[in-house]
Design a protein that fits this description.
8 helices, binds glycine, 18 strands, alpha/beta, eight-stranded mixed β-sheet
Amino acid sequence: MGEILTNILIIGGGIIGLSIAIELKLRGVHVTVLSREFHQAATNAAAGMLAPQAENIPPSPMLNLCLQSRTLYPGWINKLETITGLTTGYWPCGILSPIYEQQEVNYNQQLTVNSQWLDKDAIHQHQPGLSDEIIGGWWYPNDAQVDNRALFQTLQIAAKKLKIDIAEESVEEIIRSGSKVLGVKTSSGDLQANHYILATGAWSNQLLPISVYPKKGQMLSVCIPPENIAITQRLQMVLFGNESYIVPRKNGQIVIGATSENVEFTPGNTPWGMQALLTRAIRLYPELQNYPIQEFWWGFRPATPDELPILGSSAWDNLTLATGHYRNGILLAPVTAIMIADLIEQQKSDPLLSHFHYSRFADSGAPHH
Ligand code: GLY
């Protein structure tokens, strides 16, 4: 068998893999991260919304997990920014969820957490420039955003500063025998560790029989022309509309998302996708229709059948799962890192983790003896 390199080998170098690596390293554990192609990570494609309320997650263990992670965000960001000297664009700007005339309004929405219903006058006052068709909406002052690409870079630099071994190297196979992982086969040889963590997002079931599949999201960005800065500085919050969201960055970029498509790993932006995004975004916030387009891109969310992540122990004694974060990977990074590190380093299983166990799915990858 291959070389023993490390105590813990993390397969996947997206936001989840890196966040866990940093948490474990800060606790004194030796970790190695292997990632196929960093740029493919959903982390790069995301919009960076920290939006448990705007995403309308019903009261559930998932909402609790998401709210816990949103609470952890400022401290976590502070720690990463201190380690690296970089900034991540974390911005507790709040998220506004406007409602169109014909949409049904659920006044029971999110009563358990801080939210406010704004009527027509109030919402247009709160955010000038919205479509006239908007008749009111929900204001979630505690939802926030982070510049996901800046955060990704910060995580990579933090990992390097902390001397975590990171390699852009493809894991071709997880070698298993009975209830144990024996090692991983990579393009440049086999590696062994005491423990393994799978954090490979949408690609997870290429390595293990696990219920994660890609859900493509197409995105685009525009930028505020300098002559409009005065007007558009008014867009000081995320707009989360019907199948559409608009995320203004402090630097004048405006990210617009996202489609949600079951097309396997088909790459590329399509005319349909771009038309759908632009139509919805212009309807919501007409001012942006003349802004220059900056970029188109796409990514693959790691979806699961019940849209909840897969966290915790696996069918193999020495392999932990941290995947399937679907629409909420950026948000769930800090809580995932802490709970998975607690589980591995202290054998402490947060009661919430039981709700996200792999065994809730029939094809859970149990080893065949
Ligand atoms: N969290 C937004 C999305 O996945 O499109």
